[in-house]
Each structure stands twice: as C-alpha cells, then as structure tokens.
Amino acid sequence: MAHNVYWGDFHYNLHSENVEEIETILQETSERLDLLPLAYYPFLYYKTPEGLSVETVGQREQFLGDHNVFYFDENNPLDATEDLPDLFENLRPRRGIAIPHHTGYSVHQRGKDWDYHDEDISPFAEIFSCHGCSEGLDLPLDLNQNISMGPRTSGGTVQDGLARGYRLGIIASGDSHGTFNGIWGRGLAAVCAEDL
Question: CB–CB of 97/70 below 8 Å?
Fold first, then answer.
C-alpha cells in the first residue's frame, strides 16, 4: 500500500493555563499541520487536566537529557519519572517511546547523556526546535534561544549519538508554547504512513 507524507509537530508544550484552550489550539493547528500530539508537563506544580493520571517514580540526581514521551495506546499515565533508566523501564511494557530533544546543550544540564540511551525506547532524536540546532558543533544554525540552559557543547549532540553507533530517526519540532505551533522556523516532523 502507498504511503503518504503527513506533517506534524511532536513537541508542542501544553501548560496548565492552556488546558481550557485545547480545542482552539487543535483547530488553529489543523490549518497548518496534519497532526499535533500534545506534550504535557506531568510534574506536581502543574494542574493536571481532568482524566489524566500522573505517576511519579524516582528522583532526579542529574539531568540525563530532556525527553518527550509518547504512547502507541491510549489511557497510559503521564509518567513524571525523573530517572531516565527508570523511565525507559516504565515505557517498555506500556508501548511508549521517549524522544530526546535539544540534545546539544551541556551534558548533565539539559543536554543528552548518550551513556543513557535505549534505541528501542528512543528510536528518534529531535535535531532542531525553537532552541536551535542540536546536530553538531560549528554549524551555521545556533543553539542559543534559551541561554540559561547553556551553550551548545560537544558530547550530547545528535552527531555524538551517531558517532557512538546509535541508529536514530531524525525529526525536528517546535518546542512551542501557546497557540503558535507549526509555524516556519520552529521545526516540523514528516511522518510516512498509509493514513492518519
């Protein structure tokens, strides 16, 4: 069967103040994109939308990289696990994936620590977002949109992961907040599928 190309943004951040605007956000996005999975911060300082359960396991001792979690099936809990190996173990039986993003920031700050990677759980890496480019060093596109998270450094870039022999699908996404998703310059992901 033939595959179609669908465009989406796999890194749209839904905050508690936007929960009531979900229908408007999806309607506005449908004018530009084919799909928009919602990434919701499941930590205790955010109001959880009705119907979503949150499971918290583990404590963060250091950042091993930021990841967006997606499930292939509905009705899984928002996993607020702060320990990456524990998160991987939680996702395995739930048919979930974790996509690392803005990997090029300093390792153990907000960049990706490739010592902690599972290709089955993280088959993709986000190479570009509104933060900038995490592909590698010395590129024409910077990674400087959130200077408090640090400059782009070696060790966590997508090229660093590939150099370790990891096989990664490459996506870009917006890391957008509010209603401005799927716009030029933020990053999009192409999905090849038979249908939506």
Answer: yes
